[in-house]
Amino acid sequence: MTYEPEVRERLERDAKEIIGRYPRPRSALLPMLHLVQSVDGHITQDGIEFCAETLGITPAQVTGVSTFYSQYKRAPMGEFHVGVCTNTLCAIMGGDQIWDELTAHTGVGHDEAMPDGKISLERLECNAACDFAPVMMVNWEFFDNMTPEKAKRLVDDLRAGKDVAPSRGAGSLCSWKQAARVLAGFPDGRAHEGVPAGPESLRGLELARERGWTAPSPDEDREQPHEPVGAGEITDPPPNEPGEPIGGDVKPGSQEGRNQ
Asked: What is the CATH number of domain 5-66?
């Protein structure tokens, strides 16, 4: 591995702290991947080998996990990683148009970075903020109720070095690498900055209070949900010859068929 001695020392110190949170070292792989990404900006072969050696697993196992989850990047990202949600609600509220215009404006596509290294883009499936659709994120901080014009202005301001504040949460943006370190489990002390939930998110609670609605008591008598089939209720499948349709009245692939 080619980490400089001081970088390697820092990684080992942080890795020891991460591993100490788990009953088994290999359980620490996800935050460990964020840790090496906070150093390299993406998942490199050096990072993979460091995780494998430290956790006592193979590089192939580390690679399998790092290529499964979309937050781990296989190429360098920009200092500001800009995500555009194009899942159902955001899409119909304008997310697709935002994505199309932003990719044309920047000249890069999904998980690609601009040549100056300032901006990278990602087409996100869901930001879990449907009440603010269409939503964007920059280094996992929320930007709500966006439009194509606001999106392009946001990117231009970031490239120009202007101060940009998220709609909710922290009062300013950290870098992509700093965000990865937070995801590795090293807080930056800003978790309680700003407003965590906007009016749209709290409207249901306000409405319930206005109308005196309360949740039912857990002890209230009501019909219980159907329980899964017990072991004693499972029967042998009807006999059948290979290649022939399954006998009986059940439909193959149905829950009843699986039970039988």
From this structure: 1.10.10
